[in-house]
Amino acid sequence: MDAFAGRNGGSVSFVPFVFDVAAYSAIFVLVVLGLGIIASMMGIFNFAHGEFVLLGAYTVYIVEQNGMPSWLGMCLAPFVVAFVGVILERLVIQRFYAAPIVAMLGTYAIALALREGVRGLLGGQFYSVNAPLVGSFGMGEFSISKWRTAVILITVAVMIGCYLLLTRTKFGLQMRASLENPALARASGISTNRVYAATFAFGAGLAGLAGGLMVPIYALNADMGVPFLIKSFLAVMLGGMGSFEGSVAGAALVGATSAALPWAIKPVVADVVVFLIAIAIVKFRPEGLLSKWRS
After folding, report:
1. CA 235, 158, 261: angle at the middle one, nearest 5?
2. What distance lies between CA 129 and its chain's CA centroid?
3. Mean pLDDT lowest for which of 75-79, 94-98, 259-263?
4. What is the pTM (predicted TM-score) of this model?
5. Which three-class secondary structure string do you get for the chain?
6. Which distant-in-sequence residues (6+ apart) come within 8 Å of 24 by Cβ?
7. Each residue of 131-176: pLDDT tens digit?
């Protein structure tokens, strides 16, 4: 299949379409992984996660504005955002672990402060950042963006690294032990406070990386993280709490449908359809997409 009819009746090339969907889904997987790790391991939904994406993008913008290459900003973004995350966790969020609802309200307040702070710094304007790789690869009659290819490959590498970290390392074992039985983990000598701080920083860093990678594709503005937040919650619910594979599957489904449907129907209607599909799946698979596979 070389082409198909798009929403406006125009012809859409199949290969670039699939590639655009894959690139958007890759960024979405990074965002959801961070949120899923925090929600699954710590039992709280972080409403500031979209603003961590924004901080990652803003870090790249600041680095480039100071005459340094954007790739350097992308390398720094996850560490800068992880540092901000651990400061917030130590100062604010750790005080509310016993009351998850209050913790969610606290992260919502943090989100507002971060977003409006960046809005003030940007002056309410939109800004673009240059991609480290420009141009495209030729594939017969099609051309594929070099930067979008890099985003997909980086996401795959990060997914493999996260999986190995959570399943093959001492830190991953401590994270899972702190999730499943915090009291027993503490009795075994594990500092759950340090594990929680490191987990929150790790999830924030993943969001920062996602923001850094997406800013050459999407214009930087104070609200750029907001659309990802609600869909990320949806993806975590679809995948099932406490599951790395489930978070990836939920993110892939929500990301792919969110990227593909606007080609066929109006974006506003597409968002509604994505939510309806997700609600239907949660209705019939409340334990997550991969619950039967895990059991």
Report:
1. 35
2. 19
3. 259-263
4. 0.85
5. CCEEECCCCCEEEHHHHHHHHHHHHHHHHHHHHHHHHHHHHHCCCCCCHHHHHHHHHHHHHHHHHCCCCHHHHHHHHHHHHHHHHHHHHHHCHHHHCCCHHHHHHHHHHHHHHHHHHHHHHHCCCCECCCCCCCCEEEECCEEEEHHHHHHHHHHHHHHHHHHHHHHHCHHHHHHHHHHHCHHHHHHCCCCHHHHHHHHHHHHHHHHHHHHHHHCCCCCECCCCCHHHHHHHHHHHHHHCCCCHHHHHHHHHHHHHHHHHHHHCCCHHHHHHHHHHHHHHHHHHCCCCCCHHHHC
6. 255, 256, 258, 259
7. 998 888 777 777 788 888 899 899 889 888 888 888 888 888 887 7
Instruction: In whole angstroms, give the CA distance from residue 195 to residue 146.
Output: 38
What count of residues does the chain have?
295
pLDDT at 40 over 80: no
Count CB-CB contacts under 10 A for residue 82: 24
Residue 104 confidence class, pLDDT cut points 50, 70, 90: confident
